[in-house]
Amino acid sequence: MNLPSINKQCFVASETLNLVNASIRDLKRVLDASVITSVQLVTIYLQRIAKYDCNGPSLNQIPVPNPKIFEEAQASDNYRASVEGLTVAAGSPPFADLNFSCDATIVSSLRKAGAIVLGKTNMPAMAGGGGQRGLYGRSKSPYNPKYSTTAYASRSSNSAGTPTTASFTAFGFAGETVSSGRSPASNNALVRYSPSRGVIPFQGQWPLYLTCDVIVPHAQTVKELLDILNVIMTDNPNPIGDFWRGQSVCPIPLSSQVWPVDCQSLEDPHSLKGKQITIPMRYIRKQFPTAVNALNAFTSSVHDLWLKAQTTLESLGATVIPWPEHRHSLNAHSMDEHRTMPDDHYWMGRFPPPNGDTSYPNLTVADADMIHPHIAPMDDPTMHTEVENHVRYMDMIEAGRYQGPREMWKRDLEDWMDSNSFNLVVFPTNGDVARADSEEL
């Protein structure tokens, strides 16, 4: 990393700018007014990261700093910096040296808007399983290191939320298959948006399940989140490596066809008036103890939080309707059939997409047993994960293609909601807060 000479002005700026309370708009305002330079702002963030991530509580959230961060900061006026040389291991040992020669689509959009990439956050190998150790170890919670920074067995982007809540960055991003965006946001008191498929360009993202994965932005306020969406929700004209935009089985409207030009226009205190919201009974067993499949994993404190949320929703004009859950029979292969697609998509054997790194032309060159190594005692998914959610990498490469996801989505969600006149489905993100060393127990 080529460090520029850092003069006293950087440290004067750090004394006058409080990163903990600074919003994205605050940062943009001081940059636009030349109160502070991009290099100075980056220096302040790096000082905070050095103090709390590398030392002190040693949160271990940003293991891969951007080696060209100061060069990019100096070039931010023309927004043409490159991330060549920033590894994209996805927490997996076989990909420790994998480099992409171009930005992910959302990163390109952020750069054009003047943003600077500080680095890549920590995660378990290939986002598989939970918050256990990966290539760079395990992340810590900024609130209490004894507890996890996100839910166990559903936290593959486990350190995506912490840098934002700890003010290491102004905002951040997670990759979500089921709950790996919302869970770290919940544990770190953040606002996030989990989009429908194809809304936020996926190009450049490592997938866990191609049909399920989405990019989830994290912010400290709703207004900031809408500012981020204004930048990253773009129509990608060249969706190579973007699964949903690259397939032709399920037509999807462009983001520009369904979203407003300015997402800030979505701020509406009356938006829930007259809406019908349902919650499956199994999540609120204290109110419905005899409900089918009632979950015992939710603590009384989480249930109390739900009651507060219900009161808030109803005060905003919504009607909350509990729903008795039903479940279709699944087996070890049925979820594969529902998650996969026909031949005209970029299957796992074709990942990563063309990136200029000849050492990694596709997934088959990697040691399959090391893609997701069993580092800790509870790291074996067969011990703590339902069989339909096991990820079998080599099977995925060789597997046949099935016409399943669209039919399942329409039957189990859209038709069900329409037939019951439901506008929203809600449920608690976490049943409790897991111990940090859960995979050791």
From TrEMBL:
Residues 82-323 form the Amidase domain. It comes from the Eukaryota. InterPro entries: Amidase_dom (IPR023631), AS_sf (IPR036928). Gene3D superfamilies: Amidase signature (AS) domain. Pfam families: Amidase. This is Amidase domain-containing protein. It comes from Aspergillus thermomutatus.
